[in-house]
Amino acid sequence: MSYSHQSMGSGSRNARGYEFGRTYVVRPKGKHQATLVWLHGLGDNGSSSSQLMESLHLPNIKWICPTAPTRPVSSLGGFTCTAWFDVGEISEDGHDDMESLDASASHIANLLCSEPADVKVGIGGFSMGAAISLYSATCYALGRYGTGHSYPINLRAVVGLSGWLPGWKSIRNKIESSYEAARPDDVVPYRFGEKSAQSLGMAGFRQTVFKPYQGLGHYTVPKEMDEVVHWLTTRLGLEGSR
């Protein structure tokens, strides 16, 4: 399966002056029916994301794979690496970097703004990338960013792998959802993923699916990616290779 693969530079900056990195685009082999932004995890880049997306049998999807700004990260003791926002301990009492969350969500929305009107759009990601994907979903559900500015994209699909919903406490108050769960995981506690799915369901995402994988650490596995392919194909009504 061959794809047209290109990269684009980036000069945009987030609210704190950190510049977003290079964006990679994987063009569809078949009829262009959907465009998805796929977001990498902490310390990774858009190039590796594009290679993963290129390996999936989804010939009708155009993939846009941006690279996060390089910035200090509190959970790494201030070490500098690519990150969509600053993150410390992932806990119910943790502080969320809402300024950078909004800046990254806005940057991603801008990548989708110029897509044709008949093309369905969505966002997906892994780990910290999943966090931004789920945060973008709540911006869509609420119709606005945390800043109050209008959210411009009609999201048709959101995928988050091994991630969590940042700012869930304030979002919970807005959409009147509150849940408890318990089960440990390697990097992102299982209960935060489960709670995120519940919160999204309360926000109006009635097609939300939360899928646990026995023994899965903080990485992806072929079975998981196969189910992503199946879900996207069904949810977006993709026609298959042409």
Biggest sheet overview: 6 strands, mixed
Basic shape: globular
Question: Which percent bin holds the helix content?
Answer: 25-40%
Strand runs, count: 8
* Span of the ends, CA to CA: 12 Å
Order of helices and strands: EEEHEEEHEHEHHH
Structural class: alpha/beta
Please compute the radius of gyration using only Cα atoms. Answer: 17 Å
Q: Order of strands side by side in the largest beta sheet?
A: 1-2-4-3-7-8
Mean pLDDT: 79
Which regions contain 5 or more consecutive residues with pLDDT less than 50? 175-187
Please tally the helical runs, counting DSSP H or I stretches of 4 or more residues.
6
Beta-strand share of residues: 15-25%
Protein name: Phospholipase/carboxylesterase/thioesterase domain-containing protein
InterPro entries: AB_hydrolase_fold (IPR029058), PLipase/COase/thioEstase (IPR003140)
Domain Phospholipase/carboxylesterase/thioesterase: 24-234
List descriptors.
single chain, 242 residues, alpha/beta, six-stranded mixed beta sheet, two-stranded antiparallel sheet, 6 helices, 31% helix, 18% strand, globular, Phospholipase/carboxylesterase/thioesterase domain-containing protein, AB_hydrolase_fold, PLipase/COase/thioEstase
